[in-house]
Amino acid sequence: MHVKVLYEDNHLLIVEKPVNIPVQGDSSKDRDLQEMLKQYIKDKYNKPGNVYLGLIHRLDRPVGGAMVFAKTSKAASRLSDELRRHKIDRRYVAVIHGRPKRKAGRLVDYLWKDRKKNIVKVADRKKNGAKEAILDYKVLDQDGKHSLAEVQLQTGRSHQIRVQMANQGTPLYGDQKYGRHMNKVGQQIALWACSLSVKHPTKDEIISVDCPPPSVHPWNKFQLT
């Protein structure tokens, strides 16, 4: 599978993750993005032996868009620290059912993950294992029964955008897990990592990439610029 490279140097590799492939190996045994990119580096630079490629953050399997990987252990350590301190700017676009009560706002919830079922739920903050989840959103465009929203994560919880948007009554288009009652089987989830900004691990500069979603339904119903 061809993977589009958005930025690359000796320390960083930023790519457009295709939809419906896992970021790293899982129980499905399907070919994963991390292994694809290791093979890409091995082939491009004629590298013998094992190739190092550090995984810094994740995207859910059905979600596509910008992802950054570290090509050196130094970069991995510094980027992981940036992520922990919420210094990596990650923005998403999502097509949601309905319209939020406010055109822009901040959602703050506590999320608890049922690891056996791989489902995340909004929970009481006192529940053992519940973690605070914060995101900011703004509605960019509307079309009939759907809205286009930009989302900026302030925390990086599992399934966070999907669960928080569903909890306020506006589940994501195509989300079979958290919007099953409003979506048809087989629809592709409309959540896309559209931009990414990171401080370069060895230079005093910010590396920013834009990664618009594909011009297919339901994205092509909206003004994306």
Automatic annotation (TrEMBL):
- Pfam families listed in its UniProt record: PseudoU_synth_2
Q: Which residues form the signal peptide?
A: none
Family matches, as Gene3D superfamilies: Pseudouridine synthase (3.30.2350.10)
Supply the CDD domains for this chain: PseudoU_synth_RluA_like (cd02869)
Give GO terms: molecular function aspect only.
Answer: catalytic activity, acting on RNA; pseudouridine synthase activity; RNA binding
Which reaction equations make up its catalytic activity? a uridine in RNA = a pseudouridine in RNA
Q: Name one GO biological process term.
A: pseudouridine synthesis
InterPro entries, per this entry? PsdUridine_synth_cat_dom_sf, PsdUridine_synth_RsuA/RluA, RluA_PseudoU_synthase
This protein's superkingdom? Answer: Bacteria
Q: Which residue numbers delimit the Pseudouridine synthase RsuA/RluA-like domain? A: 11-166
**What PANTHER family does the entry give?**
MITOCHONDRIAL RNA PSEUDOURIDINE SYNTHASE (PTHR21600)
Could you identify this protein by its name? RNA pseudouridylate synthase
Q: What is the native source organism of this protein?
A: Salinicoccus roseus
Lineage runs: Bacteria, Bacillati, Bacillota, Bacilli, Bacillales
